[in-house]
Amino acid sequence: MWHVFLGRIIYGPSVPFRVLSYNVLSQALLEEHTYLYQYHDKVALNWHYRKKLLMAEIRQARAHRTHGKVDGVAVYYRADMFDLYDYTTVEFFQPGVRVLDRDNVGLVVKLCVRGGMPAQQIVVATTHLLFNSRRHDVKLAQTQLLLTEIERFAFQGVSQHQPKYLPVIITGDMNLEPHTGVYQLLTQGRLNYRGLSKKLLDNRW
Q1: Are 73 and 56 part of one and the same domain?
Q2: Is the per-residue pLDDT at 124 higher than 80?
Q3: Gap between the Cα atoms of 148 and 63, Å rounded
Q4: Which of 137, 107, 133 is nearest to 201 (CA)?
Q5: 32 with 100, same domain?
Q6: 140 and 91: one domain?
Q7: Which InterPro entries does this chain map to (predicted)?
Q8: What is the pTM of this model?
Q9: Which domain holds residue 48?
């Protein structure tokens, strides 16, 4: 889904670039749950066939790009435009925490514009939240972990009694719909979840 950006245009030293957020179905998951794709063309499900089409589509977009499970997340970037300054991984699995017992992960990278000023850095984060549409409590806990790590990574100190952060881009497959509480948290920056059950985090209940 495309959204037209109507925000304030910032003038001054800037570097235009294009971001592509892409969810590629893991071949391992496809082969593990073949019953979901029993009516699809078997040729189209072959990885060698899929890989060629996926790479062609990703290249066509010309995006400025860089635990036991064989699927995961990645951030690709154009090496002629950015240098990788730092990165951190986010493991959502936390032993002994019931709402954080899944193997989903996140990745946060800090990129520097090549040949630019030291201040020209940007933080890019990506994740793939839990799919289960009934477990909004798990998605909320995973999102909180990701946002905490992003805040730590993007924090630049305090200026005039206000925290200062690098620009942040959050991408990924959130498995969310607009009526959910976690979607509200990500789009509005706040969510009052006190006393809400995992079902009540879905505003249709």
Answers
A1: no
A2: yes
A3: 27
A4: 137
A5: no
A6: yes
A7: CCR4/nocturin_mRNA_transcr, Endo/exonu/phosph_ase_sf, Endo/exonuclease/phosphatase
A8: 0.67
A9: 23-62
